[in-house]
Amino acid sequence: MRIDEFNGSQQILMKNLKEFKKINGKVKKNLASQVESLVVIEGGTTIEDLH
Prior knowledge:
Layout: H1 3-38, E1 40-41, E2 45-46, H2 47-50
Antiparallel strand pairs: 1-2
């Protein structure tokens, strides 16, 4: 593999990694939001009310 081919492959890898991290962050935020909305205890009492 030549140096320019390696550099091209490395750039593609870094771009894909950056995109993955961006998508992963959005998924984590969305999941946290969904969990927060689902955490309801019987009688409508939320976790915050128990503190």
